[in-house]
């Protein structure tokens, strides 16, 4: 098979790493890719939202399968575009339809979907700019803290947890009136704050059947002890101790089945990944949000635990025969530590040469924001630069192997959190 993988982050390098292990993979193209994907696949300079150019490429290179990594092309309708172009409509796409991608593209749409399908989630109301006064009045009746969410895509930065009423009111005005998150906050969801432990659950579906992938817990804040600004993700661990058989049975019965059944019932075409952000509140799962693709950096830990042929699963998702796929998951641990440019998630300097040091078979190094300068040196090109996944039979062993590798990598201003997995480790002790 010839495969086109869209994206350029750590998630896509992990996808490429796993896809190229399959004997079914003849040629893997990654658009636009990064310095890591260039080592195991062919990077191509396609813009992930230039659907016309992508369709032309599919024809020219006789591509057999399209795998969409990030959410933007999905929300903009790439799956529909390929399906509606008769010259490429025979090529399966791993990624939902544009309507299906609205589960991530609009917080209000996803909350209404959950309501219609009796899926447990936090109480909420949605407001627009011309409903500002109603929104402010609604805030006065809510308990604190309270959550404000930009309705649209805001690069992971559109969720605010407000501790005081004054802070909530000020932020609501900034979001709706001052377009704090651009068009993404033209609508704002005001949501009840759920107290508990977060968990990421990943589901592969062909629209009829589904497979539950390894769960993970990620770490969003830049600072240790979960302090400071939100980021795209600073680390992840899998498996998660509290996601035992009983809890995951609740997740499947109350959330996964109603989600997949609801999509089918509402005739929403969905062949792709569903990333369910959950809160474990008193041993009961509640949906915080849906994402319509795999997470980053959770993917780097999750895929390291999948033992069966990943490309075969992707093909089964795209062709609608996932029921026949036998998913095999390792019981061992995988922990991911993300290394970022100094100053991230604020302003940072790009172009510093990176020294990778020596690797080992107990860790995997995934590239995210990397490239090459004119001299061919590996350099940092974005905020999140590398993700190192450690493997082990215990959580502590996996963490030790991850950090041992991290300590061998260096560039000017490199930063990482040293407490990834500590909270979960305490639950084991």
UniProtKB/TrEMBL annotation:
The keyword Disulfide bond does not apply. Residues 111-319 form the ATP-grasp domain. It comes from the Bacteria. GO terms for molecular function: phosphoribosylamine-glycine ligase activity. The keyword Nucleotide-binding applies. It is an enzyme of class 6 (ligase). Its EC number is 6.3.4.13. It catalyses: 5-phospho-beta-D-ribosylamine + glycine + ATP = N(1)-(5-phospho-beta-D-ribosyl)glycinamide + ADP + phosphate + H(+). Pathway: Purine metabolism; IMP biosynthesis via de novo pathway; N(1)-(5-phospho-D-ribosyl)glycinamide from 5-phospho-alpha-D-ribose 1-diphosphate: step 2/2. Belongs to the GARS family. This is Phosphoribosylamine--glycine ligase. It comes from Algoriphagus sediminis.
């Amino acid at each position: 098979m010839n495969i086109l993988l869209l994206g350029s982050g750590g998630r896509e390098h992990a996808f490429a790493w796993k896809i190229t292990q399959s004997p079914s993979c003849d040629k893997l193209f990654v658009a636009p890719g990064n310095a890591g994907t260039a080592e195991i696949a062919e990077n191509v300079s396609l813009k992930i939202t230039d659907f016309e150019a992508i369709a032309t490429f599919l024809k020219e290179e006789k591509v057999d399968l399209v795998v969409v990594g990030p959410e933007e092309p999905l929300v903009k309708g790439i799956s529909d575009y390929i399906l509606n172009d008769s010259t490429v409509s025979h090529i399966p796409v791993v990624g939902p339809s544009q309507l299906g991608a609205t589960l991530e593209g609009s917080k209000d749409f996803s909350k209404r979907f959950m309501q219609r399908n009796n899926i447990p989630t936090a109480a909420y109301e949605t407001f627009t700019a011309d409903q500002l006064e109603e929104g402010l009045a609604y805030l006065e009746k809510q308990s604190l803290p309270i959550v404000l969410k930009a309705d649209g895509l805001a690069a992971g930065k559109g969720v605010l947890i407000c501790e005081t009423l004054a802070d909530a009111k000020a932020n609501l005005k900034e979001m709706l009136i001052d377009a704090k998150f651009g068009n993404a906050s033209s609508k704002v969801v005001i949501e009840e704050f759920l107290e508990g432990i977060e968990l990421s659950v990943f589901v592969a579906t062909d629209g009829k059947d589904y497979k539950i992938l390894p769960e993970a817990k990620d770490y969003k804040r830049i600072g240790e002890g979960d302090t400071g600004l939100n980021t795209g993700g600073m680390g992840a661990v899998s498996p998660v101790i509290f996601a035992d058989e009983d809890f995951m049975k609740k997740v499947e019965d109350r959330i996964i089945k109603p989600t997949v059944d609801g999509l089918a019932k509402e005739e929403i075409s969905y062949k792709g990944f569903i990333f369910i952000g959950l809160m474990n509140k008193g041993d009961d799962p509640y949906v915080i949000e849906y994402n319509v693709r795999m997470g980053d950096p959770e993917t780097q830990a999750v895929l390291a635990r999948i033992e069966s042929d990943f490309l075969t699963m992707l093909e089964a998702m795209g062709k609608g025969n996932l029921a026949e796929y036998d998913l095999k998951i390792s019981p061992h641990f995988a922990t991911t530590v993300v290394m970022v440019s100094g100053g991230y998630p604020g302003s940072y300097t790009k172009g510093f040469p990176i020294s990778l040091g020596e690797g080992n078979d107990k860790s995997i190094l995934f590239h995210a924001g990397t490239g090459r300068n004119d001299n061919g040196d590996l350099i940092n090109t974005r905020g999140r630069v590398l993700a190192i996944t450690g493997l082990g039979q215990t959580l502590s062993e996996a963490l030790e192997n991850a950090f041992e590798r991290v300590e061998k990598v260096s560039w000017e201003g490199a930063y990482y959190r040293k407490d990834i997995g500590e909270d979960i480790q305490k639950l084991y002790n």
